[in-house]
Amino acid sequence: MNDNIVIRVEGLTKQFGNFVAVNHISFDVSQGEIFGFLGANGAGKTTAMRMLCGLSVPTSGHATVAGYDVERQPELVKRNIGYMSQKFALYDDLTVTENLRLFGGIYRMSRRDIKLKTRQLLTELNLTNERNAMVRSLPLGWKQKLAFSLAIFHEPKIVFLDEPTGGVDPITRRQFWEMIYRAADRGITVFVTTHYMDEAEYCDRVSIMVDGHIKALDTPAMLKQMFNAPTMYDVFLALARQATRG
Amino acid sequence: MVLGYLISKEFKQMMRNIVLPVIFVLLPISVINVVPRIATQEIKHINFSVVDNDHSPLSERLVHKLAASPNFHLVGTFASYGQASATIDGGQADLIVEIQPDFERQLVVDGTAQVAVATNSVNGMKGSLSSGYVTQILADYSAQLRDEAGLDASNTRLARLNVEPRYLYNTTLDYKLYMVPALMAMILILICAFLPALNIVGEKEKGTIEQINVSPISKSQFVLSKLIPYTVVGLFMLTMAIALAWLIYGYWPSGSVWLIYVMAIAFVLVMSSLGLIVSNYSSTTQQAALLIFFFMMIFMHMSGMLTPIVSMPRWSQTLTLVNPMRYFMEAMRVIYLKPVGFAAVQEQFLRLCIMAAVLWTWAIASYRKTQA
Q1: Are B277 and B362 contained in the same domain?
Q2: Does one domain contain both B34 and B52?
Q3: Is B163 inside a domain boundary?
Q4: Of all helices (H) and strands (E), which one includes residue B46?
Q5: Which of A13, A160, B129, B176 has the most crowded CB, counting CB atoms within 10 A?
Q6: Which domain holds residue B32?
Q7: Residues 6+ away with beta carbon under 8 Å from B4
Q8: Chain A residues inside the 8 Å CB shell of B213
Q9: Are the C-beta atoms of A45 and A209 separated by less than 8 Å?
């Protein structure tokens, strides 16, 4: 298992002035794994994820993503990852197809590949009729599914999802997770933050951050056993109650 | 390749904006059509009141001569200065011409006489210009009187010095011809500084920049994808402005047209790079808009567009050396008014190129894909 580790984090720390947002976190993620990154608001999840994506420079510690150092080789990291931010970040004044073509082009996919994958994706998402609709006119659930598809459009090694299902209805959330599973089956590693504890159950392994530290990291089953809790919700409550900030 | 995708995205967004394409067309039309007609420094209608204390044939002739001038309009003749002054207070008149009681006698006996001119100088420019006009007419009148009296210029102390100016390049002293090239520069600065300033910061506000920052796009590609569309739009508007100036006023550059485009590309690169720098440092579009507005106001007023640079204080003349608008405006006026080649504007061109290189590098450096 050690030879196919795609994310390796050692003592990663981010400090803003006196505030330590992320405090010495360490963990490994293997290829094809669905890694749940949990924590209350303000626990430091997004900051940690932004460091792993090369959007933010670590104050100290090391992290390699897809074999590249996030601090020294952020552009090489970016070539190998997909990212879906908390806030919807596609161009809402471009159509569905235009967004796909743009990002396909940005990741240097060939014109043929872009065309082929676009057609395939539109069928898969049932968006063929909306392919020429402005993205802003789509309902939120569709937007989120499209944003995820776009994040893995160029077949990255790892995809980072920051609260991808916030505000989305249960049926769409379900479909969303089916898409995540399909991606993981193709060998894409999924690194996902969420506040929905039922989603935490779907992950292979889960880490729970409290006040910038990782307080627990294991499979959902092991965590429930450890904390003697019936659901992940109870595990989360037990840990999040220790928080002093936020 | 990647650049192609990015540029096509910028154009699509620009053309889908409800306002922008309309502005691109309306701005040159309204600026070139309207502004030269209203921003004129020629004074055409000067209303004047007369206080004739002499009531002689010679004083009456003077009043007729003034009233006959196309620029002057006689409001009325009044018995006292006080009454005439009331017409200025009331806004009916711009200046008073007061003729002394023994005007004719003094002229005949001494050969000189005095006329007092009082001007409303609330608008200093109009005041001094109109009193200048009166002085000219008076000089003309006295010359006429001397001719009639058969005085030879050589045997009088008031030897007549006849200046006959010959105006070069702008032979008819047409103020519009002077303003039109400057207005083209103004159109370019409005679009090519303002829009880029709002662009990157707009992507920050919407959050779309995250998706760009997390991708392997190079910084220079991204910045270039923002510069090129505005350069194209700028040149399109310039072309419209040149065509309109020709259609409406019949003005065509005396120098070559391609020279205008060469200068314009350099200028647009400077201005849009500045806009992008402002955009990179701002965190809201409001900040960016105010900041670029600050630059635009200063650039325009210190460019020599309305007031000549040589009549500015020394410190401000020095400051204009780093004003890109100054160089472009100078070049535009030269190219429009003089039949010159590249040599005449090469200094301006070189300075714009240096500024463009510095600002473009700065624009790339100030765009950060990774936050510290």
Answers
A1: yes
A2: no
A3: no
A4: strand B46-52
A5: A160
A6: 2-39+172-366
A7: A105
A8: 55
A9: yes
Q: Which residues contact B180 (CB under 8 A, 6 or more apart)?
A: B32, B36, B245, B249, B251, B336
Query: What's the confidence (pLDDT) of residue B137?
Result: 83
Q: Is residue B210 within 8 angstroms of chain A, CB to CB? A: yes
Whether residue B89 sits in one domain with residue B23? no
Q: What CATH number corresponds to the domain at position B150?
A: 3.40.1710.10
**Same domain, residue pair B238 and B360:** yes
Same domain, B20 and B79: no
Q: Which ipTM value was assigned to this complex?
A: 0.92
CA proximity to A198, closest of A235, A151, A155, A243 = A235
Task: List, for residues B213-257, the tens digit of each pLDDT value.
Answer: 999 999 999 999 999 999 999 999 999 999 999 999 999 999 999
CB A173 within 8 A of CB A195: no
Phi and psi, residue B304, nearest 5°: 90, 10
Residues of B in contact with A87 (CB under 8 A): 207, 210
Please choose, from the candidates B253, B285, B301, B278, the residue with its C-alpha nearest in 3D space to the C-alpha of residue B359. Answer: B278
Q: Is the pLDDT score of B159 beyond 70? A: no
DSSP code of residue B48: E
* Beta strands at B95-99 and A213-218: parallel, antiparallel or unpaired: unpaired
Contact (Cβ atoms closer than 8 angstroms) between residue B92 and residue B45:
no
Show the tokens assigned to B219: 């910084």
Q: Is B231 found in the same domain as B256?
A: yes
Chain B residue numbers touching A81 (CB-CB < 8 A): 214
Question: Which of the listed residues B155, B183, B202 is the one where a domain comes to its end?
Answer: B155
Hey, is the C-beta of B217 within 8 angstroms of any chain A C-beta? yes
Spans in chain A with pLDDT lower than 50? 1
